[in-house]
Amino acid sequence: MNTKLLLLAAAATFATASCSEKKTETTETTTAPTGDQVTTTTTTTIDTTSYRTSADDLVSQVTNDLNATDAAVKTRLQNVYYNRARTLRNLEAMPDTTGRYAAIKAVNDNTTSQVKTIVDPAQYKTYTTSQGTYYSGPYTTTTVVTTAPAKASIGARVGQGSGIKKLEREGDGDHKVKYENGAKIKRESDGSVKIKRADGTKIKIDEHGNRTVKKGLF
In whole angstroms, what is the distance from residue 98 CA to residue 66 CA? Predict the structure, then answer.
């Protein structure tokens, strides 16, 4: 069985584990000394209690780490971890190959993806940093990306929301902006900027990014 088929099988098993029967049947056909074919069916009961207990223990650990007290969250996590344990049981009999490794990794990644839909973003960030203590076996390291607030433009900071009073654009490429609060910004064609704030502070930024600040008298 190639790796792709193993991954598909693992995903299908994970999705249906909670609906699986608690018993399995094994049929074996043997030949009796008389030459007759004898079919024997053996029914084996799967010990789901151990999986449920393991899931409960993991839920307690995770919810304590995340400070999650919502009963609905705990129930959903318990089902996710129970299904994971049931799925991994089906992979235990596989030989220790690249395919088995990939299949276990897929199960662990699937578990993490489901947890993401259950907890809030801050809890999920905490969860992924401790993921190695929750799962045995391979999994994909998850990076939570946080976007920093956009920095306000020079005009927004200088104008302070007062609005533009006058705009001047000169033929050489220079342009000036005057704000209702008395502030001014002049941008020159070489890239340098001159700023006068409402409090009288003057700032000059040359074409190389060097800044000079002269405080107002008041």
Answer: 33
In the chain, domain spans: 3-17+36-134, 154-214
Distances (CA, A) of 64 to 56, 83, 114, 155: 12, 21, 18, 47
Task: Estimate to the nearest angstrom the gap between the alpha carbon of 181 and the chain centroid.
Answer: 45
> Bigger pLDDT: 38 or 136?
136
The owner of tokens 């060097």 is 210
Nearest to 170 by CA among 192, 188, 193: 188
DSSP symbol at 154: H
Q: Answer whether 138's CB lies under 8 Å from 108's CB.
A: yes
**Partners of 26 in the β-ladder:** 42
Under 8 Å between Cβ of 68 and 120: no
- Inter-residue contact 154 to 185 (CB < 8 Å): yes
pLDDT tens digits, 107-133: 999 999 999 999 999 999 889 888 888
Q: What are phi and psi for residue 195, nearest 5 degrees?
A: -125, 135
Rounded to an integer, what distance in angstroms lies between the CA atom of residue 217 and that of residue 197? 12
The predicted structure's pLDDT at residue 33: 55
Single pTM value for the model: 0.49
- What are the tokens at 5? 């088929």
* pLDDT tens per residue across span 20-57: 444 545 555 555 555 555 555 554 444 567 778 888 88
Mean pLDDT of the chain: 76
